Amino acid sequence: AQTVTQSQPEMSVQEAETVTLSCTYDTSENNYYLFWYKQPPSRQMILVIRQEAYKQQNATENRFSVNFQKAAKSFSLKISDSQLGDTAMYFCAFMKHAQGAQKLVFGQGTRLTINP
Amino acid sequence: NAGVTQTPKFRVLKTGQSMTLLCAQDMNHEYMYWYRQDPGMGLRLIHYSVGEGTTAKGEVPDGYNVSRLKKQNFLLGLESAAPSQTSVYFCASSRGDRGYTGYTFGSGTRLTVV
């Protein structure tokens, strides 16, 4: 079974700083997807970024980028020029690339606070 | 464009009571899921469905039942609520094509069992 581990329960940085959230996973699969979801106080789950394992290039979305190290099974999220609106819970998640149910496996989450 | 709608948004139950959480999607998605979110544990899959009339167990199915009689609806039932079922419940759906097609999440239901 796949597992996802986020070793940082909480993080706090000043506005405009850069912050990196860690995620490691365990799988024997070769093809899969990795995701970062953001959950603000509204509780809504918002997709931040996704990475397909067969793509070597790291995914980027504006201020958000990932460092995907397939051999090390590591998938960290970097937030540049952090903003107050980035304050949220962040979840790393894994999905097998296969037919059938597209089940997400989530990490425990990291609570990120951006301070003014 | 409602997406995925969960009802109710909040509920307080007494131990032993039963209730049903309703999830409705208007995107004609094939796959639907129920997750629960607990502090320090992320989201865990309770049950899922890959089409109308089908259901399957996820990671934490005990104490829950589900039904998918109509493609657009996925019901989660608690027959005899326990305090351990206090949680935030999320429904999600996905198109179900070959490969990843993306999740749409509902806004969650906060359930407290006293």
The largest chain-to-chain contact, stated as pair and per-chain residue counts, equals:
A-B, 25 and 27 residues
> What count of helical segments of chain A does DSSP give?
0
- Are there runs of chain A of 5+ residues with pLDDT below 50, and where? none
* Helix and strand run of chain B: EEEEEEEEEEE
Q: What percent of residues of chain A adopt helix (DSSP H or I)?
A: under 10%
Can you walk through the features of this model?
The complex is a heterodimer of chains A (116) and B (114). Chain A has no helices and 12 strands. Chain A is mainly β and 116 residues long. Chain B has strands at residues 4-7, 10-13, 19-25, 31-38, 42-49, 56-57, 65-67, 73-78, 87-94, 103-105, 109-113. In chain B, strand 7 and strand 8 form a beta hairpin. Chain B starts with a strand and ends with a strand. The A-B interface holds A 4, 6, 9, 33, 42-45, 47, 50, 52, 91, 95, 97, 99-109 and B 31, 33, 35, 40-45, 48, 50, 56, 58, 88, 90, 92, 94, 96, 98-103, 105, 107-108.
Task: Give a short overview.
The complex is a heterodimer of chains A (116) and B (114). With 116 residues, chain A is mainly beta. Helices cover 0% and strands 53% of the residues of chain A.
Salient structural properties:
heterodimer; A: 116 residues; mainly beta; Immunoglobulin-like; 6-stranded mixed beta sheet; 4-stranded antiparallel beta sheet; 53% strand; B: 114 residues; 7-stranded mixed beta sheet; 11 strands; 0% helix; globular
